[in-house]
Design goal:
Layout lengths: L6 H12 L15 H7 L2 H8 L9 E5 L5 H9 L4 E6 L2 H13 L5 E5 L12 E6 L9 H9 L2 E12 L5 H12 L9 H13 L5 H6 L10 H7 L10 H11 L2 E5 L19 H6 L5 H11 L5 E7 L15 H5 L1 E5 L6 H12 L21 H4 L10 E2 H11 L12 H18 L2 E5 L2 H5 L1
Parallel strand pairs: 1-2, 1-4, 2-3, 4-5
Antiparallel strand pairs: 5-7, 6-7, 8-9, 8-10
Length: 448
């Protein structure tokens, strides 16, 4: 752990006092960025781990390394009714964080100038800890993770990330170049940033370092933050998937999932996942999650961040995956629309598509998979009741039957089994894509 008196910590503090990060305008709001809110909603990792839906109201959330508070604002927006506590070693950043949350009307937030190793002094136990773009600055990952674990509730979840040493290899080369030039001897300021710009512009365009790291957008006033965070970043280091899992084991923490887990699917790297060469077809299904992620990283290192969720060991609740549910499971299922979809625009456009009998482009409102997803208007109407509150599977089937009481082909009353199957297939698809959440209730829950 970095001690409070270390030269490195002092340099990092000076860098962020001089150039508070991120440089997001005070009045900018994330409330319309549903994809950002999706990631920062406690509901998302909790459902992934337990297949249960949690209410964030009353929860206590830590934003470790909160900087100027934009992520704290996102956490507050994404988790209505939760208390947000932010810490950072930069006093100037903390001042801006307080101003930001006050400006946007969040009075259930507090901020402290505090390093991670002193977290117990706050006397809080947290339901969720967000440690974004910070962990990779610590010399010892395990000690930093253990510091957060010490203030995490038993069923709490930590979200953190590491810079990928493979994906960011060229940036680390650039940092080495500018270290050799003496630009990181002290706190980099305008002069050092200007030297970076002049150096990169002076290189031929086909020089590998320039071709793989430089962007003309870095050359304007708005590029200063990017230069600091990519070329002149004190303490920046890279790690691998193997490093991550080694640190989690040492800290006695369980890996839950990658934050953008759908983009780490090893099978998506193959042309025909269902028709692999014999050796791969036999071996890949048998390897661990760690090995799958490690192979993805080696074969296709596209992710700057190794972004993950973790928590105390043995806290995941046992559940049967939705894809393996029986009809009996489905009949006692409770269906939730994802919180970020409960907006006036979503409702208005959903109703318009149903009324005008045209497909509803649900991926325009939330894109967990970054692919276009449309729903036929004849079945999209099942989402209407979910805008008000969660619904039972049976109630959604009955709702659909009310809309379509007659089979358009046979002109006979709609068959119950057929209606059940149609709604089931819709929900299976939407759950896998991140638009609805499905809870399997016990018979006792249903009767009560």
């Amino acid at each position: 752990m970095i001690s409070p008196s270390s030269d490195l910590l002092d340099k990092i503090r000076q860098q962020f006092d001089a150039s508070p990060y991120p440089r997001v305008p005070l009045d900018k709001s994330p409330k319309d960025d549903t994809n950002l809110l999706y990631i920062h909603n406690l509901v998302t990792p909790y459902y992934l781990r337990n297949q249960k839906v949690i209410d964030p109201k009353g929860k206590v959330i830590l934003d470790a390394g909160c900087g100027t508070g934009y992520k704290s604002l996102i956490l507050a927006e994404a988790n209505p009714g939760a208390k947000v506590v932010g810490i950072d070693i930069s006093e100037e950043s903390i001042k801006l964080a307080r101003q930001r949350l006050e400006h946007h009307g969040f009075d259930n937030a507090e901020f402290h100038v505090l390093p991670i190793e002193e977290l117990p002094e706050l006397d809080y136990q947290f339901d969720y800890i967000n440690c974004d773009e910070l962990l990779y600055l610590f010399p010892d990952l395990t000690v930093a993770l253990q510091a957060m674990k010490s203030v995490l509730k038993s069923d709490g979840i930590i979200r953190s990330n590491l810079h990928s040493s493979i994906q960011r290899f060229n940036y680390f080369r650039a940092q080495k170049v500018f270290t050799m030039m003496g630009l990181m001897d002290e706190n980099p300021e305008d002069l050092e940033m200007e030297i970076v710009v002049e150096t990169m512009k002076a290189l031929k365009d086909n020089v590998q370092l320039k071709a793989t790291t430089w962007n003309s957008n870095y050359e304007g006033e708005n590029g200063k933050e990017r230069i600091l965070m990519n070329y002149l970043f004190h303490g920046d280091k890279g790690y691998t998937i193997s490093d991550l899992f080694t640190a989690l084991r040492a800290a006695d923490l369980d890996f839950i999932s990658m934050v953008n887990w759908r983009k780490w699917d090893l099978m998506n790297l193959f042309k025909e996942p269902d028709n692999l060469p014999a050796f791969l077809g036999m071996s890949l299904p048998e390897i661990s999650v760690e090995q799958q992620l490690q192979l993805f990283e080696l074969i296709h290192p596209i992710h700057r961040l190794i972004d993950f969720w973790c928590g105390h060991p043995n806290q995941a609740q046992t559940f049967v995956p939705v894809s393996e549910w029986t009809d009996s499971d489905w009949r006692v299922a409770k269906v939730h629309l994802y919180p970020q979809l409960k907006t006036p625009n979503f409702r208005e456009d959903l109703v318009a598509c149903i009324t005008e009998i045209r497909a509803f482009p649900i991926s325009q409102y939330l894109s967990p998979t970054e692919e276009f997803v449309g729903i036929d208007s004849s079945i999209a109407l099942c989402l209407i009741p979910l805008l008000e509150q969660p619904q039972s599977m049976i109630s959604l089937v009955q709702h659909w039957k009310q809309f379509r009481p007659i089979d358009p082909v046979t002109l006979k009353p709609t068959d119950e089994k057929q209606a059940f199957y149609i709604v089931q297939q819709l929900l299976l698809s939407l759950e896998s894509l991140g638009y609805v959440m499905l809870e399997r209730q016990s018979d006792e829950d249903v009767t009560h």
